[in-house]
Amino acid sequence: MNWASWILWGFVANVLLTTVNSATQGLGVTRMNLPYILGTIFTPDRDRARLYGYFVHVGVGWILSLIYALIFQSLGAAGWWRGMIIGVVHAFFFLIVVVSLLPGLHPRMASEQQGPEAQNMLEPPGFLALHYGARTPLAVLLSHAIFGALFGAFYHVK
Amino acid sequence: MGVSERCPAKIGDYGVIGDCRAAALVSNRGSIDWLCWPRFDSPSIFGAILDRERGGHWSICPTQEFRVERAYVRDSNVLETTFIGPAGRAVLTDLMPVCSQEFKRRSLFPDHELVRQLECLQGELEFRIDFWPRADYGQQSVDLRTPGKLGLRMDVGAGAYWLRSSVPLEVHKDHASATIRLRQNDVVQFSLTYAEESPSVLPAIGDGTRRAIERSVKWWQEWASQCTYNGPYREAVTRSALALKLLCYAPSGAVTAAVTTSLPERIGDSLNWDYRFCWLRDASLTVRALLGLGYHPEAESFLTWLLHATRLTQPQLRVLYTVFGQIAPHERIIEKLQGYCDSRPVRVGNGARNQLQLDVYGQVVEATAQYAEFLGSFDRMTQNALIGIGKYVAKNWDQPDEGIWEPRSGRRNNTHSRLMCWTALDRLLALDEKGNLQGVPRDWFTRERDRIRRQIETRAWNDGLQSYVATLDGDGLDATLLRLAWYGFEHADSARMRGTYRKIQETLGAGNGLLYRYGRDLPEGAFGICGFWGVEHLALSENTLADAHKTFRGLLRYQNDLGLFAEETDPASGGALGNFPQAFTHVGLISAALTLAEQERGKAHPAIQVGSDVKPEAKS
User: Fold this and answer.
1) Whether B250 and A112 lie within 8 Å, measured CB to CB
2) B483 burial type by CB count under 10 A (0-12 exposed, 13-18 middle, 19+ buried)
3) Does A59 touch chain B (CB under 8 A)?
4) SS3 string of B99-149?
5) Most buried residue, A92, B213, B257, B444, by most Cβ within 10 Å?
6) How far does chain A reach from its first CA to its final CA, in angstroms?
7) Which domains does chain B have, with CATH numbers?
8) What gap in Å lies between CA B424 and CA B366, rounded to an integer?
9) Strand, helix or coil at B188?
């Protein structure tokens, strides 16, 4: 295991992933802002939530990149295309599994069974997070593929 | 079969039940003729209101002659239909069970449920029960399966419906039925559920159903008791609030315009549209209604939806969105359905999705400005969104657009759209003055706002008619001109507004306070909310408060026996027309009642509080 390579490139790839996530929202590709969703676990303040969420997303992603590194180690090689494939699988796991669990995990997110009580909550993501825009799955796939490709390209297997 | 035999109940003969995610229409003959699950704009499973033969229905109705009395259980959306026959009396209770989030955390609760309970109160009555589900707007028959004693299961697409019944039903391939005789104190219960996740939750019937009814009544009554309104016509206002609450989609905070599609604006005609989406034109009145009645969580949820669900298209705003902020689907025609009383076509989706309506910008900003009176300030993202909307308005206000009524005949220079652009810039400037917004380009917004004012004052005023007119340099009238005073552009008592009101009454008046929206010779009824705009205009004028009350009372005659309004009213018969029940009409009623109450107490009108350039005399 190449710890130095993981620490450096895991961090760099995650900063890029988080930035791409925020950019796809800012550019109107999707309404989903993952740092904002994560930040609202801790605070309802929209401005602070985005800040906290950015760091949480980088941190969590950094840890998850360890799994990428372990897969590269077990394969005996890294490389951008291997990283991209893992990134795409990661994205599908996120879209199909994690997103469906979010309303149960997040204290400020409504579920589709919410109601009739009105509370100011985050709207539920729906299947493949499609409630946040039809291009949301594409944005998630793209950002994770870039993340995997970057990490795979620069991670050195020991 | 003649047209009358093909007709379901009259539109006004329906009642609505719901759970703030979906709704059903129940006729005064005990037939559920409209139900879409899992949400308002999903395909119907019962659609007999649009085609008695093919749409599907679930009726529970006496086999002998009967008369009927209906009412909601006090301050609730639990509907009771009492059948009175020659030998007995029975009450049918219809509802979609609701409960608190706390209760849901503690109990297994079906994703979606509709409960029906029939209780014989006196004597003896025979009933026929017919259960005819038809999926996808009647286009698909449904196979009924009987897995043991649990009930009937119907698999439709990715979802499963379950019907549980306390009486045995004769099950055929695609429908179930029974004829039962009830004696005093006999009770039969039914529970229809829908789930897209398996296993489905199968609710207990018997005591479980009774408890679900009690819990739902209690929940609605507690919600209704939070209403802080204590002005005139409280009963009508409370019913409107309950109807509006049913149209709120709780998971996102959106408010849908109506629960139906394609109920016609004229019987037998083609003015049939799908209203199961969220129209931004309703925004400011909806927020005013919710805030004015003390329902701040609903107002906050709606405003959050308004500003953030529409983010993908900002700074441009579409006319309508789905409950999750997606652009409404393309309009298509369901050829197989005959339409309500042969009113074809039946449309789903809405073609207005591609229209330009500049008035929506003013609606959104006005709603925000009203809410700011309670909230104070906005986070940076919201501020940026509002300023972005302002910049779009400042650049684009001088364009022709389709306008609030969404005609499909092209764009015009609509006075109302100009008024709402003026309102958008005026309210943004007022928010800036109050310190609620940072970074407003004041000089630019002020300049454009004043240009709009000059344009309306010069080109939307017709000297010959002595009235404001619907389009620049035009000579047509439009009920939206009454809003010039409501938004503070003109004082209601100015000579110009007195002339405009007089001309509107002459040209668009339909009797008893009813108003057509833009012409008497059009194939449609009087437009529900326009009458209430007339009430508000009178209330804002000096010395006409009594007239305003009289007009309001006149309009209340057109609510159905349950206090519900459709989009339009047929002035000749008094019958309801168009989609039903209609949020726009109910928010109009609430807003008018609030204005009456405010004027009686000498309180300033909200537009005066949230505006920057409202007419000086209006401030007094």
Assistant:
1) no
2) buried
3) no
4) CCHHHHHHCCCCCEEEEEEEEEEEEEEEEEEEEECEHHHHCEECCCECCCC
5) B257
6) 6
7) 13-197 (2.70.98.50), 233-619 (1.50.10.10)
8) 7
9) strand
**What's the pLDDT band for B458 if we cut at 50, 70, 90?**
very high
- pLDDT, mean of residues B472-479: 96
Q: Rounded CA gap, B305 and A120, in Å?
A: 9
pLDDT score of B5: 56
Integer Cα distance of B217 and B97 in angstroms = 9
Residue B1 is predicted with a pLDDT of 47
How far from B140 is each of A71, B132, B155, B318, CA to CA, in Å?
49, 12, 12, 33
pLDDT in tens, B25-51: 999 999 999 999 999 999 999 999 999
| Vertex B217: Cα angle to B213 and B220 (nearest 5) | 140
Rounded distance between C-alpha atoms, residue A112 and residue B291, angstroms:
25
Residue in A30, A45, A117 nearest the CB of B250: A117
The C-alpha of B300 sits at a distance from chain A's nearest C-alpha, in angstroms, of 7
What residues in A contact B247, CB-CB < 8 Å? Answer: none
Q: Respond yes or no on whether ipTM tops 0.90.
A: no
Distance CA A16, CA B369 (A): 38
**Cα distance between residue B526 and residue B530, in whole Å:** 8
The letter for the amino acid at B147 is P
Per-residue pLDDT tens digits for B106-120: 888 888 999 999 999
Rounded mean pLDDT of chain B? 93
